[in-house]
């Protein structure tokens, strides 16, 4: 879990920016999107197949 402790003279805007940066580095948003709603087995297979296709395309592009 990401936690940000405010400094003595730190504003809320800078603390919020730090929090957003830490959340994005921790990879919480993709995980949250993945668990947002129920995914049928067919949808899951399709999503994984598209991801594998993109990965292979990226790997052999050179």
Quick recap of the structure?
The chain is mostly helical and 62 residues long.
Task: Please give a structural write-up.
The protein is mostly helical and 62 residues long. It has one domain. 66% of the residues lie in helices and 0% in strands. It has three helices and no strands. The protein has helices at residues 12-26, 28-34, 41-59. The radius of gyration is 18 Å and the shape is elongated. The termini are far apart. The model has no long low-confidence stretch (mean pLDDT 88).
Query: Based on helices, strands and strand pairing, what is the structural class?
Result: mainly alpha
Shape: elongated
Radius of gyration: 18 Å
Biggest β-sheet description: none
Number of helices: 3
Total beta-strand segments = 0
Could you report the average pLDDT, rounded to the nearest whole number? 88
Assembly annotation: single chain
Which spans have pLDDT < 50 for at least 5 consecutive residues? none
**Estimated share of beta-strand residues:** under 5%
Instruction: Count the domains.
Output: 1
Q: Which H/E pattern describes the elements?
A: HHH
Percent helix, as a range, is 55-70%
What is the first-to-last residue Cα distance? Answer: 38 Å
């Amino acid at each position: 879990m990401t936690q940000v402790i405010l400094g003595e003279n730190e504003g809320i805007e800078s603390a919020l920016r730090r929090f957003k940066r830490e959340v994005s580095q921790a990879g919480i948003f993709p995980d949250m999107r993945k668990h947002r709603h129920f995914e049928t087995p067919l949808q899951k297979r399709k999503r994984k197949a598209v991801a594998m296709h993109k990965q292979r395309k990226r790997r052999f592009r050179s």
